[in-house]
Specification:
Blueprint (H helix, E strand, L loop, with lengths): L11 H26 L6 H26 L10 H8 L6 H29 L5 H30 L7 H25 L7
Helix pairs in contact: 1-2, 2-4, 4-5, 5-6
């Protein structure tokens, strides 16, 4: 996905702007949810999980915004010359920084998704069969997409092709987006009975 926003891509500026806006909005939404939902915690353990979960989502948003400010100079999986420069260490340091910020973003999303799904499933106010079940299924899909992405990155680094890296990353981001939308719907529909 990051290659769409690379500096040498025709719509790179557009995709970087979308990444930045999405990251800022997710981060802001997580902070608002944290402030809004934290006082409603039923137990100390659920309160801690809620805080850590929303912090993970905020980290995902902040790292996504940072990603947009650390664009790749070229698209290594689509351009053999770019891949050769990357292997030789002849690309800007932003390539390495982008890899770190992308990893932090996915780690934050996973932490947030797992912890908040646990909170929803443990909360008596939210029907676990509806909210918790859907969120848990999405967490499982996200974990599978993340494993696929990591395997594809390893394969690409070993010169074994891309293994559908772009598709795997799209699956990751789509799953995160759907999870956030589902979580937001339940938060809005049950403002007095939010998890935690």
């Amino acid at each position: 996905m990051s290659e769409l926003a690379a500096e040498d891509q025709p719509y790179g500026t557009f995709f970087r702007a979308l990444d930045f806006a999405a990251g800022v909005l997710v981060c802001a939404g997580a902070v608002v949810a944290l402030v809004w939902l934290r006082p409603r915690a039923r137990s100390r353990a659920l309160s801690l999980l809620t805080v850590l979960g929303w912090a993970g989502i905020a980290l995902f948003g902040a790292a996504t915004a940072a990603d947009s400010r650390l664009p790749l100079s070229c698209a290594p999986t689509a351009d053999a010359a770019c891949a050769a420069r990357e292997r030789a260490g002849l690309v800007p340091a932003a390539h390495a920084a982008h890899a770190v910020s992308s990893s932090v973003a996915v780690a934050g999303a996973l932490v947030g998704m797992v912890l908040l799904t646990v909170v929803v499933r443990k909360s008596r106010a939210w029907p676990a069969a509806r909210a918790g079940g859907v969120l848990l299924a999405l967490v499982c899909v996200e974990l599978a997409a993340t494993v696929w992405t990591l395997a594809a990155v390893a394969a690409f680094d070993a010169g074994q092709g891309t293994w559908g890296l772009g598709v795997a990353q799209r699956a990751q981001l789509l799953t995160i987006a759907v999870w956030l939308a589902v979580a937001a719907v339940w938060v809005v529909r049950s403002p007095r009975e939010a998890p935690g």
